[in-house]
Write a sequence for this structure.
């Protein structure tokens, strides 16, 4: 788990601020037509205003709901499936080729098909996002289960615990740090695919739809402003999940640290 | 209480143990010693029900064992792998007590009592990775004690700690197990340890492991790391076990046999 300390955070902020200042100066010095492509300061101002814009907020809430549901469905499918495939070797061997075939198919390529299958746009978007977000959770869960020390399981078995108890008391908590990492990756992937499906398939609400509408009105300031907000949301989610992992799985980091 | 009848196990074509016969009486401390690769661990895992032996029987109180028997606990050599890093020492010790159907309060009380017995009352809230190796193995021992098994299996339990801790843990094991009247089967490759800890030392041959010696240890108790180890009887018995482990012919004269 990446650990962010004060100094590296400060440097990152300085780097970002530096780039923004350079872009702002270049724009003001006439490096491009600011009527076409707005100044950095204009875009940032718009991004701030969007947070209070009811029309944008309706779209944002729609995207957020789609994203959250997609992530929940992903977890509900991929974690149990990963635990099963991780624990039952023959099952994993049987579905491995299928996974290797399905995994590289870009979720975006499925959008036309999924549009035909669903009348409800939210269901369509969730399906597209789940398809892409599934893999990191599934693969991480399988590896997490594999990583469990056989002796840890045998210890509980020797005390007379059955396979169900061993799965619940040893396999699940032992694999939890890996599962959490998979969910963190899936959270980012799901953001990308929710917005992508909104952009490609359209609809009434959603940030992707909002961006499309802004584009048709030639409002590059609103387009870029909305895009920046999506990016910031991604950073925020990632930071929260990393913080949660660091808190919950201190034991995992302590062990990994001791091993190196 | 424990009886092994022609116990054999093969992994593919590799014969790990071959027709091991052994009877252990209630309350006895039996040490099994043998050269490395003599199938000591296979023997223990068969008794614990972790593997199904390919031949022979394990009888507990006269009944054949199928799966992991009740009233049995194992202390493994590798405490760092056998303790759960996401649980405190107290939770680790209390976990097997779920099998005893105790509620949370009584589990914690029993776990705390066991930690006190191994001198770790103050470290109950610590996690295994915050403890030294010796402390972790004490937690493993406490976990087995709290479970109050009739039979305690120990697989090289002191093999991963330093020499001084090892002596402390040997004495601790003898003390608390005598207190509980537990039957212990301790597996070791250390000849000294087998004589010091055991009421009986059973020697296994090189693979395929089979019993080549079964020597009673008649040393005055309570044992003491300094005095017991300088007794003539200790020294002679140690030499005898050492010869057997190395596959040499037994030298019966010096050994006090029953």
């Amino acid at each position: 788990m990446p650990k962010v300390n004060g100094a590296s955070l400060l440097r990152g902020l300085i780097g970002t601020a530096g780039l923004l200042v350079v872009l702002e100066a270049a724009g003001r010095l006439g490096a491009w037509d600011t009527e076409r492509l707005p100044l950095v300061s204009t875009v940032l101002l718009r991004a701030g205003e969007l947070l209070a814009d009811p029309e944008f907020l309706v779209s944002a809430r729609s995207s957020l709901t789609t994203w959250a549901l997609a992530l929940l469905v992903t977890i509900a499918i991929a974690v149990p499936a990963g635990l099963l495939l991780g624990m039952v070797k023959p099952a994993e061997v049987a579905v491995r080729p299928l996974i290797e075939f399905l995994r590289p198919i870009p979720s975006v390529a499925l959008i036309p098909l999924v549009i035909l299958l669903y009348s409800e746009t939210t269901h369509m978007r969730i399906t597209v996002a789940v398809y892409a977000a599934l893999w990191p959770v599934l693969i991480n869960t399988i590896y997490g289960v594999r990583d469990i020390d056989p002796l840890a399981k045998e210890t509980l078995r020797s005390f007379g615990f059955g396979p169900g108890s061993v799965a619940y008391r040893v396999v699940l908590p032992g694999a939890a740090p890996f599962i959490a990492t998979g969910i963190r990756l899936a959270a980012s992937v799901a953001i990308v695919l929710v917005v992508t499906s909104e952009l490609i398939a359209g609809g009434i609400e959603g940030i992707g739809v909002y961006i499309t509408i802004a584009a048709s009105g030639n409002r590059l300031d609103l387009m870029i402003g909305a895009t920046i907000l999506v990016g910031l949301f991604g950073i925020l989610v990632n930071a929260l999940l990393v913080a949660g992992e660091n808190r919950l799985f201190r034991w995992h980091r302590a062990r990994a640290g001791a091993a190196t | 209480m424990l009886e092994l009848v022609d116990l054999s196990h093969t992994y593919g074509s590799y014969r790990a143990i071959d027709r091991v016969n052994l009877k252990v009486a209630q309350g006895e401390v039996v040490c099994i010693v043998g050269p490395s690769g003599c199938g000591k661990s296979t023997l223990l895992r068969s008794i614990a029900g972790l593997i199904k032996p390919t031949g022979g029987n394990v009888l507990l109180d006269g009944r054949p064992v199928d799966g992991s028997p009740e009233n049995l606990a194992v202390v493994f050599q590798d405490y760092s792998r056998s303790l759960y890093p996401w649980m405190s020492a107290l939770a680790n010790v209390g976990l097997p007590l779920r099998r005893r159907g105790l509620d949370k309060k009584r589990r914690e009380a029993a776990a705390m009592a066991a930690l006190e017995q191994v001198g770790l009352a103050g470290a109950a809230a610590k996690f295994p990775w915050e403890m030294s190796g010796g402390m972790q193995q004490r937690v493993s021992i406490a976990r087995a004690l709290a479970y109050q098994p009739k039979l305690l299996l120990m697989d090289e339990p002191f093999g991963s700690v330093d020499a001084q801790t090892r002596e402390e843990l040997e004495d601790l094991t003898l003390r608390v197990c005598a207190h509980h009247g537990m039957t212990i089967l301790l597996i070791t490759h250390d000849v000294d340890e087998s004589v010091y800890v055991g009421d009986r030392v059973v020697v296994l041959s090189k693979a395929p492991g089979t019993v080549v010696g079964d020597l009673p240890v008649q040393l005055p108790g309570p044992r003491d790391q300094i005095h017991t180890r300088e007794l003539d009887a200790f020294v002679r018995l140690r030499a005898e076990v050492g010869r057997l482990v190395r596959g040499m012919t037994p030298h019966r004269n010096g050994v006090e046999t029953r």
